[in-house]
């Protein structure tokens, strides 16, 4: 591998170029997952699409690795690299809303917090993640699962167009009318096809929601999971939410003597008429006594930021994920065995529903293939102390080994760990071969290979 010509890069880029000799280098090279310890030769913080193109050209011409960073949340740490160039889009975060057209254009480094704050000002939203610090681009390019998915589809199902700097340094607009093959591939194919400098979304009228977290005793976990399985199958599509194994954090709504205890939680989000919220959440309240809850009417953007404190930057991350078509008794048994062992307050297991509107898009209409799955499960190991790596990774692996054989072979690309590259074909299923074709068109030399890679 060559080396970047830093002087030339600095000359040509209007934004900042940070190298190992510069103050702030350690911050600039870090990603969210503190287990990743890589040392790029240069971190470029662009201020424009032209800067991005310069960095892409530079990496290609020098024959060096190129990493793309949006929100930096990717668990495998593909947003940094050793010896190459990182394009850190955190300097390009503007979100422009057109309330009359009900669309929003987010720059490639915007987070869901940036996005939700901008759209909430107009009573609008689209499907995004459940944590506000996650990047809009990285989350969307993998699919985009969140509270609004049952009603409005995945984030990609609301994507109207994207502006992309491709491997040749040119800018392309991908939409249903231009570069249709690229637009298809971007909707699930991750960062394989170029640097996405902006994404345009359709918005829906969503302002206040009714919901929040509820904590139930572990002995009621079977009842909660069985209720979830049957209720969510045909619940009104405005009902989003998911069960989770969760250690109680020290929050005021949880009795102090229960802080640190493990619960089965349910996080609900009713985005229909607010006055129906209480009755919509009655069935879950009837399942078992609620030990603690923080449920009520709140802005959608507030629910999206409610759990940020549990996942600060700098934790160690190791995750495993599978799609699930039927939440069988056997899978529920596996959850009942492993969920209660959740080791630390930051770690969790989420079983997201991906039915409803997600199923109204065909398996081959976008690169995200698993439209028949009803759930996306993630065992998300997140812990502060590297000395606990072995114990935490073991919990994630044991849990996953118990549930994976009962699930689909594939998992959601955005919940994959760094050691999941061998699952790439299964993760794209019937769409894999077409993705390879698009990759050959837009990135034949695999410049964008730091991702769950679709090799040309
Ligand atoms: C705490 C936490 C909560 C999460 N919650 C959810 C959730 O609710 N729903 C959900 O669907 N997923 C969720 N995820 C998973 C998330 O979708 C992925 O980690 C995603 O990759 C994060 O995107 P990012 O931009 O923040 O990360 P980054 O690490 O910056 O990017 C990850 C990869 O995405 C690609 N990428 C990012 N930006 C661009 C760009 N502008 N152009 C081209 N490629 C790009 C690159 O390949 C990059 O390596 C969560 C992850 C974490 C850590």
Average pLDDT value? Answer: 97
Mind telling me the C-alpha Rg?
21 Å
Instruction: Label the overall shape.
Output: globular
What percentage of the residues does DSSP assign to strands (E)? 15-25%
Which ligands does the model contain, each kind named once? flavin-adenine dinucleotide
Report the span from N to C terminus: 20 Å
Helix segment tally:
15
Give the secondary structure arrangement, pairings included.
Blueprint: H1 6-12, E1 16-18, H2 25-29, E2 42-45, H3 49-62, E3 66-69, E4 85-88, E5 95-98, E6 103-107, H4 112-120, E7 124-125, H5 136-142, H6 149-152, E8 159-165, E9 171-175, H7 180-186, E10 195-202, E11 204-205, E12 208-216, H8 221-234, E13 239-247, E14 262-270, H9 277-280, H10 282-287, E15 290-293, E16 296-299, H11 300-305, E17 316-324, H12 329-338, E18 348-353, E19 375-383, H13 389-403, H14 424-428, H15 432-442
Parallel strand pairs: 2-4, 3-4
Antiparallel strand pairs: 1-2, 5-6, 6-10, 7-11, 8-9, 8-10, 12-14, 12-15, 12-16, 13-14, 13-18, 17-19, 18-19
Bound molecules: flavin-adenine dinucleotide.
Flavin-adenine dinucleotide binds at residues 31-32, 68-75, 78-79, 89, 108, 129-131, 134-135, 137-139, 141-142, 144-146, 190-191, 195-196, 311, 414, 450-451.
Describe the structure.
The protein has 456 residues and is α+β, with helices and mostly antiparallel strands. It has helices at 6-12, 25-29, 49-62, 112-120, 136-142, 149-152, 180-186, 221-234, 277-280, 282-287, 300-305, 329-338, 389-403, 424-428, 432-442; strands at residues 16-18, 42-45, 66-69, 85-88, 95-98, 103-107, 124-125, 159-165, 171-175, 195-202, 204-205, 208-216, 239-247, 262-270, 290-293, 296-299, 316-324, 348-353, 375-383. The strands form four sheets. Strands 12, 13, 14, 15, 16, 17, 18 and 19 form an eight-stranded antiparallel β-sheet that branches. A five-stranded antiparallel β-sheet has the order 5-6-10-8-9. It is globular, with a radius of gyration of 21 Å. The two termini are 20 Å apart. The chain binds flavin-adenine dinucleotide. Residues 31-32, 68-75, 78-79, 89, 108, 129-131, 134-135, 137-139, 141-142, 144-146, 190-191, 195-196, 311, 414, 450-451 line the site of flavin-adenine dinucleotide.
């Amino acid at each position: 591998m060559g080396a970047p010509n830093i002087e030339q890069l600095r000359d040509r880029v209007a934004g900042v170029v940070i190298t190992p000799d510069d103050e702030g280098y350690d911050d600039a090279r870090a990603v969210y997952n503190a287990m990743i310890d890589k040392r790029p030769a240069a971190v470029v913080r662009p201020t424009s699409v032209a800067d991005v193109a310069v960095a892409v050209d530079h990496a290609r011409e020098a024959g060096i690795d190129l990493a793309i960073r949006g929100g930096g949340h990717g668990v495998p740490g593909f947003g940094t690299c050793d010896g190459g160039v990182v394009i850190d889009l955190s300097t390009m975060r503007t979100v422009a809303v057109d309330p009359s057209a009900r669309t929003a254009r987010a720059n490639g480094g915007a987070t869901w917090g940036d996005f939700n704050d901008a759209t909430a000002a107009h009573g609008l939203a689209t499907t995004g993640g459940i944590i506000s610090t996650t990047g809009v681009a990285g989350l969307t390019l993998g699919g985009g699962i969140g509270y609004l998915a049952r009603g409005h589809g995945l984030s990609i199902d609301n994507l109207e167009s994207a502006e992309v700097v491709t491997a040749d340094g040119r800018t392309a607009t991908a939409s249903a009318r231009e570069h249709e093959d690229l637009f298809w591939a971007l909707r699930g194919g991750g960062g394989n096809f170029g640097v996405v400098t902006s994404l345009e979304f359709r918005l829906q009228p969503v302002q206040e929601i009714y919901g929040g977290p509820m904590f139930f005793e572990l002995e009621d976990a079977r009842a909660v999971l069985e209720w979830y399985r049957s209720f969510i199958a045909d619940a009104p599509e405005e009902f989003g939410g998911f069960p989770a194994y969760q250690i109680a954090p020290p929050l005021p709504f949880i009795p102090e003597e229960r802080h640190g205890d493990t619960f089965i939680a349910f996080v609900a989000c009713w985005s229909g008429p607010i006055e129906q919220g209480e009755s919509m959440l009655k069935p879950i309240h009837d399942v078992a006594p609620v030990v603690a809850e923080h449920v009520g009417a709140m802005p959608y953007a507030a629910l999206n930021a409610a759990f940020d404190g549990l996942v600060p930057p700098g934790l160690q991350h190791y995750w495993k994920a599978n799609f699930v078509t039927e939440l069988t008794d056997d899978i529920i048994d596996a959850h009942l065995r492993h969920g209660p062992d959740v080791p630390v307050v930051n770690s969790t297991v989420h079983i997201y529903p991906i039915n409803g509107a997600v199923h109204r898009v065909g398996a081959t209409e976008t690169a995200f293939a698993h439209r028949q799955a009803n759930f996306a499960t993630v065992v998300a190991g997140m812990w502060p102390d590297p000395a606990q790596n072995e114990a935490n990774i073991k919990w994630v692996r044991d849990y996953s080994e118990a549930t994976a054989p009962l699930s689909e072979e594939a998992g959601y690309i955005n919940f994959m760990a760094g050691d999941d590259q061998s699952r790439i074909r299964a993760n794209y299923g019937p769409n894999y071969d077409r993705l390879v074709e698009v990759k050959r068109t837009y990135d034949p030399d695999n410049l964008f290979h730091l991702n769950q890679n679709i090799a040309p």
